[in-house]
User: Which sequence fits this backbone?
């Protein structure tokens, strides 16, 4: 599997402890199987170079959990965000949908407990579906071969970020409509 990670460093030997324990899929090194997705979420920081790191992940012999959007996916994200013990800690790699509230800056609303789980899951199903691949164990990190890194240009990042802002507007509009319909029902 070809996977990508965008950041401010060339990362030839990823650290699985780099990711937060309360991230969507728990502690691990987060990648994407989509080069386009990785480029779209590139950021710029003054005085730093942005890199697209490329890898090949050999899944042979690894315990892999696939988590498509749905109840199990939602419950896993919900529990990880609350720093519950990792229910899938026995897996080397988790492949599943990125929760759109983290990429579109609405994270607190959907898992805050202010709305019920059914509505939160409905909201998380809105928008584009992107895949994340999380390397959770040293065994999986050893199966990840660094292929190289390329520097991303400022003008390209600006174009990709513009596309993301448009997606974000569409997502937040759909989310607003969903939350308004829930509020109307509760009146």
Assistant:
């Amino acid at each position: 599997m070809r996977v990508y990670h965008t950041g401010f460093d060339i990362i030839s030997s990823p650290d699985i402890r780099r990711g937060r324990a309360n991230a969507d899929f728990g502690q691990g090194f987060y990648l994407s199987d989509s080069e386009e997705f990785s480029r779209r979420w590139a950021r710029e920081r003054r005085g730093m170079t942005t890199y697209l790191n490329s890898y090949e992940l050999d899944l042979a012999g690894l315990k892999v959990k696939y988590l498509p959007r749905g109840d199990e996916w939602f419950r896993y994200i919900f529990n990880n965000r609350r720093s519950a013990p990792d229910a899938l800690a026995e897996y080397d790699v988790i492949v599943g949908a990125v929760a759109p509230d983290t990429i579109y800056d609405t994270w607190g609303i959907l898992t805050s407990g202010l709305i019920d789980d059914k509505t939160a899951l409905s909201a998380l199903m809105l928008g584009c579906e992107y895949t994340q691949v999380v390397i959770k164990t040293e065994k999986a990190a050893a199966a990840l071969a660094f292929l190289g890194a390329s520097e991303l240009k400022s003008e390209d990042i600006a174009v990709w970020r513009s596309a993301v802002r448009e997606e974000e507007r569409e997502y937040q509009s759909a989310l607003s409509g969903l939350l308004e319909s829930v509020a109307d029902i509760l009146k």
User: Anything to note?
Assistant: The chain has a mean pLDDT of 88.
